[in-house]
Amino acid sequence: MLGKLEEMVAMALMHAGRNARASDVYGQIEDRIAKPAAFGAVYTTLERMVDKKLIDVVKEDIPGRNGRQRKLYTLNGEGQQTLSASLRQTGEMRAGAQKDWGWGYV
């Protein structure tokens, strides 16, 4: 199960495509959410998901930047499966709330 920000980051990463920079992921969230999380929170979430082995990361040299590297992120197969399971569970809970409480807006 993923947290809500992890779900958003995973979906934004899918929209951004393979080998996306953190700023690309943040841009996808910013384009779709009225009040997005802070960039630092998105970056921290990306790194946490790398640690969980849900996202692959490749480091690429930045020309003319004294050996600095940028990180490029890709949602891997495990990440896609985990996202799918998390969204399915959220949908099941949502359907239960609609049925039990008559919440048409949920």
Describe this structure in words.
With 106 residues, the chain is α+β, with helices and mostly antiparallel strands. The protein has a single domain, classed as Arc Repressor Mutant, subunit A. 58% of the residues lie in helices and 13% in strands. It contains 4 helices and 2 strands, in the order αααββα. It has a two-stranded antiparallel sheet with strand order 1-2. A hairpin with a 7-residue loop joins strand 1 and strand 2. The two termini are 20 Å apart. The model has no long low-confidence stretch (mean pLDDT 90).
CATH superfamily: Winged helix-like DNA-binding domain superfamily/Winged helix DNA-binding domain
**Alpha carbon gyration radius:** 16 Å
Categorize the overall geometry.
elongated
CATH class: Mainly Alpha
Helix proportion: 55-70%
N- and C-termini, Cα separation: 20 Å
Number of H- or I-type helical stretches: 4
Q: Taking strands numbered 1, 2, ... along the chain, how are they ordered across the largest sheet?
A: 1-2
Content-based structural category: alpha+beta
Low-confidence stretches: none
* Order of secondary-structure elements: HHHEEH
Q: What's the pLDDT, averaged over the residues? A: 90
CATH architecture: Orthogonal Bundle
Question: What name is given to the CATH topology?
Answer: Arc Repressor Mutant, subunit A
**How many independent structural domains?**
1
How many strand units?
2
Sheet having the most strands: 2 strands, antiparallel
Percentage of residues in DSSP E strands? 5-15%
